[in-house]
Amino acid sequence: MTIRSSNLGFPRIGRRRELKKAVEAYWRGEVSAEALKDTGRELRRRHWALQAEAGIDIIPSNDFSFYDQMLDMSVALGAVPERFGWQPGTIGLDTYFDMARGHGDVPALEMTKWFDTNYHYLVPELREGQTFSLASTHIIDAYEEASEAGYRTRPVIIGPVTWLMLGKCKSGEIDPLDLLGRVLPVYRDILGRLAKAGADWVQIDEPVLVTDLSDAQKAAVGEAYAGLTGAGPNLLLTTYFGALGDNLDLVADLPVEGLHVDLVRAPHQLDAVLAAWPQDRTLSLGVIDGRNIWRTDLSAAFARVETAIAARGGGDIEIAPSCSLLHVPVDLEQEDRLDDALKAWLAFAKQKLEEVVTLAQAAQSGRASRSAAFDASDAAQASRRASPRIHDPAVADRLAASADTDARRASPYERRSLEQRARLNLPVYPTTTIGSFPQTQPVREARAANGKGDMNDADYDAFLKAATEDAIRRQEALGLDMLVHGEFERNDMVEYFGEQLDGFAFTRFGWVQSYGSRCVKPPVIFGDVSRPAPMTVEWTAYAQSLTGKPVKGMLTGPVTILQWSFVRDDQPRSQTCRQIAYAIRDEVVDLEKAGVGAIQIDEPALREGLPLRRADWAGYLDWAGTCFRIAASGVSDATQIHTHMCYSEFNDIMPSIAGLDADVISIEASRSDMELLEAFAEFSYPNEIGPGIWDIHSPRVPGEAELERLLVKAADVIPADRIWVNPDCGLKTRGWPEVEASLKGMVAVAGRLRQAAE
Ligand code: GLN
Ligand code: ZN
Question: Domain 414-439+475-757 is of which CATH architecture?
Answer without folding.
Answer: Alpha-Beta Barrel (3.20)
